[in-house]
Design a protein that fits this description.
Elements (H helix, E strand, L loop, with lengths): L1 E6 L6 H11 L3 E6 L10 E4 L20 H10 L3 E5 L1 H8 L6 E3 L7 E9 L15 E8 L3 E3 L2 H9 L3 E6 L18 E5 L5 E4 L17 H11 L1
Parallel strand pairs: 1-2, 1-3, 3-4, 4-11
Antiparallel strand pairs: 5-8, 6-7, 6-9, 9-10, 10-11
Length: about 230
């Protein structure tokens, strides 16, 4: 599997993603600068976390207009796999590849901790190796992770099975205390209708080695490798 990692000014999880793809899974991995106008031959694009353009205006709002994004949109529309993590999720919403928007955390504070997620969709390439209802423990680090979408669209999102991950307790219960940012319906990650573009606020790339505190994030990349192989 060939992986491309897009870098914007302010990205700070690009090397985390590179380490996971290249050194943990031994995948052919390439950095792609945001000013590039053409993509190399890749099977998966990762838009990593960070603070693209310093989060000025709104998280992801400026990155959405970078030259490379036209290629990202084309790649996604042709069925290419795209994974947006944290700031990458925000960018995917800003460019319209995913519905909704990420708002300021309801606490109005930056949230940096480990959380539990429940997998509610295991029929997409990103979760094929995950069991339905499986609980994963991953870290978050964001100030604008409060997922919002208008009520009619939320109903549609749920009906279509586009909610992939939800914040829950370690027992899989969806409670307000388990929701770290106020996201609608405890949503932590969603996929587009076609199932090839995933956005999530938690960081799987930071939970792929025991030395980092957990390995639950590995299963997302194992799913992708198994789907493409």
């Amino acid at each position: 599997m060939r992986v491309g990692i897009i870098i914007f000014p302010g990205s700070n999880c690009d090397h985390d993603a590179y380490h996971l793809a290249r050194h943990v899974f031994d995948l052919e991995t390439t950095f792609i600068w945001h000013k590039e106008k053409h993509l190399p031959e890749v099977d998966l694009l990762i838009i990593p976390g960070g603070f693209s353009y310093g989060d000025y205006l709104r998280s992801g709002a400026i990155a959405r207009f970078s030259a490379i994004m036209a290629e990202v949109e084309r790649f996604a529309e042709e069925g290419g796999l795209v994974l947006g993590i944290c700031n990458g999720f925000q960018i995917l919403c800003e460019c319209g590849l995913l519905p909704g928007v990420l708002l300021r955390n309801s606490s109005v504070r930056f949230a940096c901790k480990w959380v539990h997620l429940r997998a509610d969709n295991v029929d997409i390439p990103f979760t094929r190796s995950v069991e339905l209802g499986q609980i994963m423990r991953l870290p978050i680090a964001h100030g604008e992770g409060n997922y919002f979408i208008e009520a009619p669209e939320l109903v549609e999102l749920e009906r279509n099975g586009q909610v992939v991950f939800r914040y829950t307790t370690s027992a899989g219960e969806m409670t307000s205390d388990a929701n770290p940012n106020g996201s609608a319906n405890n949503i932590a990650g969603i996929v587009n209708r076609q199932g090839n573009v995933l956005g999530m606020m938690p960081h799987p790339e930071r939970a792929a080695e025991e030395i980092l505190g957990g390995v639950d994030g590995r299963i997302i990349f194992e799913s992708l490798i198994n789907s493409i192989s």
